[in-house]
DNA sequence: TCATTATATAATAATTTACTTATATATAAA
DNA sequence: TTTATATATAAGTAAATTATTATATAATGA
């Protein structure tokens, strides 16, 4: 893997909040509103973290009404497969509001 | 792997210069003087990068006279094994001076 | 001993990153 | 329509990171 691409993916995951986002998504799709509760940071901060993960090709999203559900992309790089294996899934990230759709 | 520990190791490698240091060391021991040439940054900067890698348990060193040779530690964490596999070795990091010892 | 060389540490400056608040956009509902 | 809600983007600020220069330490050789 090329050094610059490697750096980009590693930088994307080298942050505790983004690790938690990934930990949540190991159980499946999660909507943004729930991430805000889990991380305890502002909604724009969550949005920016998600954008980083998306730009690194690690997550993708699906729009459901006004909500947006994020999930891990299906075909990860070998690097990310290894890293994701080391991330303990986090329960209790499921939608509590009506966004389960 | 615990999220905080994971973050620490990921942060240690999420930097282009440190990726290059690791790429050099894939071929074996390298002494600090050679890293300076390869990265094109100052000697103290190299020294600080090496310290971060050492503190994360990724590299270790051996003193040879006034020189110091750095190498990858033998037993890496499963996380690091996967990451190191993705780092392309970098040739031409061998000692050009008398520090081959 | 004194000068030289290799590396590490300290102090500080420059850059990057990650927040915050404010605002924009888009959908849904009244 | 108008209002409310979910998310994204913009702007600004705080915090963390990475560089530099200056200095310390430790080993070698004259």
TrEMBL record, chains A, B:
Pfam family, one: HTH_5
GO molecular function, one term: DNA-binding transcription factor activity
Domain HTH arsR-type: 1-92
Entry-linked InterPro entries: ArsR-like_HTH (IPR011991), HTH_ArsR_DNA-bd_dom (IPR001845), HTH_MetalResp_TranReg (IPR051081), WH-like_DNA-bd_sf (IPR036388), WH_DNA-bd_sf (IPR036390)
PROSITE patterns cross-referenced by the UniProt entry: HTH_ARSR_2
Gene3D superfamilies the UniProt entry points to: Winged helix-like DNA-binding domain superfamily/Winged helix DNA-binding domain
Record-linked SUPFAM superfamilies: Winged helix' DNA-binding domain
Chain segments annotated as coiled-coil in the UniProt record: none
Superkingdom to which the source organism belongs: Bacteria
Keywords: DNA-binding, Transcription, Transcription regulation
Cited PANTHER family: ARSENICAL RESISTANCE OPERON REPRESSOR, TRANSCRIPTIONAL REGULATOR, ARSR FAMILY
Protein name, as recorded: ArsR family transcriptional regulator
């Amino acid at each position: 893997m090329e050094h610059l691409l490697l750096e980009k993916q590693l930088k994307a995951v080298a942050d505790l909040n983004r690790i938690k986002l990934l930990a949540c998504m190991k159980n499946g799709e999660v909507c943004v509103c729930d991430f805000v509760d889990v991380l305890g940071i502002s909604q724009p901060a969550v949005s920016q973290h998600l954008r980083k993960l998306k730009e690194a090709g690690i997550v993708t999203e699906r729009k459901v009404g006004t909500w947006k559900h994020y999930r891990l992309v299906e075909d990860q790089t070998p690097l990310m497969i290894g890293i994701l294996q080391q991330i303990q899934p986090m329960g209790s990230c499921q939608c509590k509001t009506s966004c389960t759709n």
